[in-house]
Design goal:
The chain is α+β, with helices and mostly antiparallel strands. The chain has 4 domains: 144 residues, Alpha Horseshoe (Serine Threonine Protein Phosphatase 5, Tetratricopeptide repeat); 282 residues, 5 Propeller (Tachylectin-2, Chain A), CATH 2.115.10.20; 210 residues, OmpA-like domain (60s Ribosomal Protein L30, Chain: A, 2-Layer Sandwich), CATH 3.30.1330.60; 105 residues, Sandwich (Immunoglobulin-like), CATH 2.60.40.10. It contains 16 helices and 36 strands. The strands form 8 sheets. Strands 2, 3, 4, 5 and 6 form a 5-stranded antiparallel beta sheet that branches. Strands 7, 8, 9, 10 and 11 form a 5-stranded antiparallel beta sheet that branches. Strands 12, 13, 14, 15 and 16 form a 5-stranded antiparallel beta sheet that branches. A hairpin with a 2-residue loop joins strand 9 and strand 10. Helix 2 packs antiparallel against helix 3, helix 4 runs antiparallel to helix 5 and helix 5 runs antiparallel to helix 6.
């Protein structure tokens, strides 16, 4: 239970050394005794894999798998134990086999096994016989409930919040921030030791950006005490006081937690104070506080404890707070608490409703989320929140936002990130109610559906080139891969969160108007470039989907860029990773709605092709610093930031081009020009004249040059068939001498969509 309660799980152990069987057994037993069930399972399996007939070891392995939530392996080996000749030595093997059946969603099998266990042990008045009998009814309930889907949209929060470790207990404060708890390695090398105290739970805060939640930042050390596990935060309404729990860093199996309170004053959080012994009963655990306020102004603190006087293992209690004094805690009573565990309370005052999780009431899995109306110790019978809020896995820490009726919960359901075993670790999920009104059949009117005549292709082309920006060496710093699993939206949220850092670093050492100008440059860059680029991407994505739904085959050309801080080879791979993050954005958009178009399986015939043109540093501005020691100019300057980007430069739809067999054509009068001798510092302009010789309107999507010493001006409006236009190139020799050769690449929607032009000059001294 404590493993679930405090989420000290997923402790990743070192690879096993060449140890003897006896040594591995001892290490496994020691780890199990300490509550490090993952490490225990690793040691046990190293021996079990060489001797699968060892039933005692099979049982130990099944136990350790169950306790770190590897339900599949646990089910397999409990089955082995139960079917063996030594089954009588392990009377709980059948009970836990049934429990794992249920956790894996095998309700009919679970029911039969619970019933077998009960019939075999019904003369015993134990927790297990009570639980088995209750679970027979619960499995019947689950089989009905899972067919009645609740109208709710559930989404997994991104890598900016969730990790392969455990995240839990999320609360949204207004529209601005998300606070939550998370388990993290406490050492620089997360794999250097398997001792539990190398993993601590801490409290984090994430800011809301145009691209979603930013990367979480730790609360200050006065809250996140380095000597404790810190978690389970709750706020008073004006966010000036918080309650949270601290848990000892002793071995997990003997961990104790207590509740603290602190206030925000003089611009900072004050030193937390432990609540008195009536709340924090000595020798027991008190945790997971939830604050509420009564209509008469009194405050109430709900919390979880295994102190004496309860109905089961962990119960929910409350204490009324009068003018800062905490009354003796009272149990919520047996309408809420059971012989099992009731945990993670959240009181929603607007509806006078308590949300909590229980492993006893009729439900779908280990822990289900329930709600009950009432207050203090007067409560209605709890109601299961239904599927898919609840699943056959553990679902808990339900919360409601301050500004609406949506919110968050915690679950180890498949889809959560993990280190070992897809259900080992908890992540934060959001829920949004879909309040669709039911319409009576006889009230439905027949409405004529008009054909969609919007020119989505042209709408998108008007946005091009569409530029998206990245922080230095993002995504996956230092990687040599050409792909990433990160979504562009995730990297963008983290990037926007760094705006204040950019302002500070770029204005460092400056004073007065120079400092103000540097800060304004950064603010304008993030607003007009970074955020504006994402807003355009959102528009494009909506129009792209509609274009595909018309049955069109669409090709998008994406070009990658980098600042010159690394080798050309490295930057080319980085450019590919950046394009990969955009692909992931499309892959994951609205739960994968584009996947059928990307893999060519759409029933409407639509198809999406993303063409890559990684560039690396070859076309980066030569006046951006490539000195890694000059971070101000190589990383935090606006000039450097403008180079770290990808661009959607072309959009082609077969419906408007190939299906109609009408194509624009671009033909230049001259494809090259030589300025001859140019004096150093001199600027020259040349116009490349071209004509649209095709039968459809020509769109110039973009013009790129091979270095930063030219500036191009090209027509932005469609060029009609037969019409001529020009692309103006400014050649600036700067202070460089010798023969200079430029390549100008023109991208358009013509059949020959990429045309290269040449420009030469011999730069000499005056």
């Amino acid at each position: 239970m404590r493993k679930i309660l405090f989420f000290i799980i997923c402790l990743n152990s070192l690879p096993l050394l060449a140890q003897t069987t006896d040594e591995n057994l001892k290490f496994g037993d020691d780890a199990f005794a300490d509550g490090d069930y993952y490490s225990a399972s690793t040691y046990y399996y190293s021996v079990l894999s060489g001797d699968t007939t060892n039933i005692e070891l099979a049982y130990k392995y099944a136990e350790s798998c169950r306790l770190f939530n590897d339900y599949r392996q646990a089910e397999k080996w409990y089955q082995v134990v139960y079917e063996s000749k030594e089954t009588e030595k392990y009377p709980l093997a059948l009970f836990y086999l049934a429990l794992m059946n249920k956790n894996n969603g095998e309700y009919s099998t679970a029911k039969n096994n619970f019933y077998k266990y009960y019939n075999k042990n019904k003369k015993e008045d134990s927790y297990y016989t009570q639980k088995a009998l209750h679970e027979v009814e619960s499995c019947d309930f689950a089989m009905k409930l899972v067919k009645d889907t609740v109208s709710v949209l559930i989404e997994h929060l991104t890598e900016n919040v969730n990790t392969p470790y455990s995240e839990f207990g999320a609360l949204q404060l207004g529209d601005t921030s998300l606070v939550y708890s998370a388990l993290r390695p406490n050492s620089a090398d997360e794999y250097q030791d398997i001792l539990p105290n190398f993993y601590l739970s801490r409290i984090y805060s994430s800011k809301n950006t145009i691209a979603g939640w930013s990367k979480g930042r730790e609360f200050p050390y006065i809250i996140n005490n380095k000597e404790s596990n810190n978690a389970n935060i709750t706020y008073t309404p004006i966010h000036k006081k918080i309650f949270f729990s601290r848990c000892s860093v002793d071995k997990i199996s003997d961990m104790k937690c207590v509740i603290y309170v602190t206030e925000f004053a003089n611009g900072k959080w004050q030193k937390p104070v432990k609540l008195d012994d009536r709340i924090n009963a000595p020798g027991y655990t008190s945790t997971q506080p939830s604050y509420s306020k009564l209509d008469d102004g009194r405050e109430v603190l709900y919390f979880v404890s295994n102190m004496p006087g309860g109905y089961g293992k962990y119960d929910i209690w409350f204490s009324v707070i009068n003018k800062g004094s905490y009354n003796a805690p009272l149990n919520l009573g047996n309408n809420i608490n059971t012989p099992g565990d009731e945990i993670s309370p959240f009181y929603y005052k607007e509806k006078n409703t308590l949300f909590f999780s229980s492993d006893w009431y009729n439900g779908l899995g280990g822990y289900d989320i329930f709600k009950s109306k009432g207050t203090l110790n007067e409560w209605e019978i709890p109601e299961n929140m239904g599927f898919p809020i609840n699943t056959s896995y553990n679902d808990l820490y339900f919360s409601v936002n301050e500004n609406d009726t949506d919110g968050y919960f915690t679950s180890n359901r498949p889809g959560s990130f993990y280190i070992k075993g897809e259900t080992c670790c908890n992540d934060i999920w959001s829920y949004e109610w879909l309040n669709k009104k039911k319409i009576k059949k006889d009230s439905v009117k027949i409405v004529e559906v008009k054909k969609d005549t919007v020119d989505y292709e042209q709408n998108i082309k008007d946005l091009l080139p569409l530029t998206l920006y990245f922080h230095n060496d993002i995504p996956d710093p230092g990687s040599r891969d050409t792909f990433t699993r990160l979504n562009y939206k995730t990297t963008l949220a983290a990037y926007i969160e760094m705006k204040e850092i950019y302002e500070k670093e770029y204005s460092k050492g400056l004073k007065g108007t120079d400092e103000a100008k540097a800060i304004n440059d950064i603010q304008e860059f993030f607003s007009n470039y970074v955020e504006n680029g994402f807003e355009k991407l959102q528009k494009m994505t909506d129009w792209l989907l509609r274009d595909l739904q018309k049955g069109n085959e669409v090709k998008i050309t994406v070009k990658g860029f980098c600042s010159p801080l690394h080798t050309t080879e490295y930057n080319t791979k980085l450019a590919k990773r950046r394009i990969s993050s955009l692909k992931n954005y499309f892959n994951e958009y609205e739960n994968g709605i584009f996947l059928k178009y990307l893999n060519g399986t759409s029933a409407d015939g639509g198809k999406l092709i993303i063409h890559e043109e990684p560039v690396g540093e070859l076309q980066s501005n030569k006046f951006v610093s490539d000195n890694p020691n000059d971070e101000r100019n190589s990383i935090y300057s606006r000039a450097a930031a403008l180079e770290r980007k990808i661009q959607i430069i072309m959009y082609e739809s077969k419906d408007s081009v190939e299906k109609k067999n009408i194509l624009p054509e671009i033909k230049f009068v001259n494809n090259s020009y030589d300025f001859g001798t140019v004096t150093k510092g001199e600027k020259k302009v040349y116009s490349f004249v071209f004509r649209n010789t095709g039968e459809a309107s020509l769109i110039i999507a973009g013009v790129e040059t091979s270095c930063g010493c030219t500036v191009s001006d090209f027509p932005k409006d469609p060029i009609l068939p037969g019409e001529s236009q020009q692309i103006n190139i400014l050649f600036d020799s700067h202070d460089e001498l010798g023969i200079k050769s430029e390549t100008i690449t023109v991208y358009s929607n013509a059949k020959n969509s990429k045309v290269e032009l040449k420009m030469n000059a011999n730069v000499v001294e005056k």
